[in-house]
Amino acid sequence: MKNLLLAGAASMAVLAFQPAQAADLMRPRQPVADTVVAVPAGFSWTGIYGGVHLGYGWGRSNWGFIPAGTFTSPSSDGIFGGVQLGYNYQINQLVLGIEGDASAADLSGWSSCPNPAFTCASRANFLGTIRGRIGWAWDRTLIYGTGGVAFGNFRNRTYDAATVTQVGSYSNSRVGYALGAGLEYAWTPNVTTKLEYMYYDFGSSTQLAGPGSLDPANEVRIRNNVHTVKIGLNYLFSTGPGPMARY
């Protein structure tokens, strides 16, 4: 009797094991990962950068002779070049930043004064800005808008048209605003180039009449604006761990 009970228990254990084993055999095999592949982080625009630029500029100086009520508008153009320094901070694809630049310039031109016996000439010697930047990044490509405070230095002169002898001069430094947009591309983790357009408006300034002035018989009010296109080369000193995610 005892042997019979043991045999029955063994048979039941075998029958219980066989369905479980069959179920295991029918279950799909799960793949086994041989290696773990690391996905590299996207390019980061975050960090301090500095560089150089070279460009072409053009503009117009509107001279108004008061109280004569006469006007002339010598146009000017030429090249400029300088340096820039800035900082970017990237959040997802949004890039925020601030940039300052300074350029030596030779943007000059002339036209006949209202009195044709004289020539009126204007020249921009210096351009600089401190601007905010806001852009949108597609990995290594950044498109942005920019705007802020502009600084300029201008020299305005009058000449005797017949003898080309200077008869009046007025130099001054000006503060205005600048607006622009640009496209920047990162060739390596640290080296980028940019193409940028900028408009500068310096408002008006007035030189009082008197000896050595542009017109000793009149006050002269001059309004300056400049357009520029430049190519820049930047070096990113630090790029951070990757775009900072915000949700």
Short description:
With 247 residues, this protein is mainly β. The protein contains one helix and nine strands, in the order H-E-E-E-E-E-E-E-E-E.
Taking Cα atoms only, what radius of gyration do you get, to the nearest Å?
Answer: 36 Å
The CATH class: Mainly Beta
Task: Kindly report the CATH topology.
Answer: Porin
**Count of DSSP strands:** 9
| Helix-strand topology string | HEEEEEEEEE
Q: Separation of termini? A: 74 Å
% residues in beta strands: over 45%
What would the average pLDDT be, to the nearest integer?
86
The oligomeric state of the chains shown is: single chain
- Report the sheet with the most strands, covering strand number, pairing sense and barrel closure: 8 strands, antiparallel, barrel
Overview features:
1 helix, 247 residues, eight-stranded antiparallel beta barrel, Porin, mainly beta
Describe the structure.
The protein is mainly beta and 247 residues long. It has one domain: Beta Barrel (Porin), CATH 2.40.160. It is built from 1 helix and 9 strands. The chain has an 8-stranded antiparallel β-barrel.
